[in-house]
Amino acid sequence: MLSLAGRLIDVGGFRLHIHCAGVGAPTVVFDAALGASSISWALVQPAVARVTRACAYDRAGFGWSDAGPMPRTAGRIVSELHELLHRASEPPPYVLVGHSFGGLVMRIFAQRYRNETAGVVLVDPAHPEDWVRPAPKEQHQIDRGARLCRHGAVAARLGFARLVGTLVAIGALAPARGLVKLISRGGLGRTDEAILAPIWKLPPEARRPLKHFWTQPKFFEALGSQIESICITSAEVLDASAAGYRDLPLVTISSTDPGEYRLRQQDALARLSTRGRHIVASNSSHWVPLDEPGIVVEAIVEMVERLRRT
């Protein structure tokens, strides 16, 4: 049976969830995508835990974690993660693994706590250059995402989100989509469903808690704040990355066929370290940890083994 739930640790007035497995150093720490939780690492963490200590956690408001203070900027999240690792007695050095939005968090962590960071693996990470001064198209995405989260929080408080989850669970997808359309005032379409992850790729025991997670007001409030604060978060990342990563081992993984613009961004990110490299997944959407978990595991394990040798 796949183990997912871990410990709830008080980090100063609220609790964060962390699930660790395996033994050895360095400790691998996972942070998930924008709307995801520790469960999105269900196909990666067990394989890494066979090699070394591996810890996946939930940001405040997500998964099993309590709601946390606002706004939910990456800088605040990094401070909370560092406190969590300290209070959970999970000592450095750390190999930091971040997917999408989680990549922004891990980039700041690597600079702020450089002496505790052994390496970084970024899985199709978000790029702060796109969001620090958003063009009209990107600003529309921010405004729309924040608005939908406000609708979602209201629906969760009224119990509608739980009803949607029940309809999905019994396979009544058409009524579920109709209710979602009503709740979001027509703002949420089928193309938006993938923001939460292609959950059918997860094992059944990993899917069960998601119905609860995605129907809580704290989830929509935290997600909405992360979206609304993305410009601040991006500025924090760029400020932290200004000096580069020197000789810190760094791997960045792209989804398949990301386009020339994204490839150039990923190459530039890898060049921020003298030991950086860029990998392109062969058959992955943005959700590389679920589409090709093996390529993520391989990059992490290779980094761990090299660090042990040196």
* Beta strand %: 5-15%
Backbone structural class: alpha/beta
**Elements, N to C (H/E):** EEEHEHEHEHHHHHHEHEHH
Strands across the major sheet, in which order?
1-2-4-3-5-6-7-8
Q: Helical segment tally?
A: 12
Termini, distance in Å?
A: 35 Å
Proportion in helices: 40-55%
Task: Report the sheet with the most strands, covering strand number, pairing sense and barrel closure.
Answer: 8 strands, mixed
Query: Mean pLDDT, as a whole number?
Result: 89
Mind telling me the C-alpha Rg?
Answer: 19 Å
Low-confidence stretches: 166-173, 175-194
Query: How many strand elements?
Result: 8
- The gross shape turns out to be globular
Index terms:
alpha/beta, 310 residues, 12 helices, eight-stranded mixed β-sheet
Descriptive report:
The chain has 310 residues and is an alpha/beta fold. It is built from 12 helices and 8 strands. It has an 8-stranded mixed β-sheet with strand order 1-2-4-3-5-6-7-8, sandwiched between helices. Residues 166-173 and 175-194 have low confidence and may be disordered.
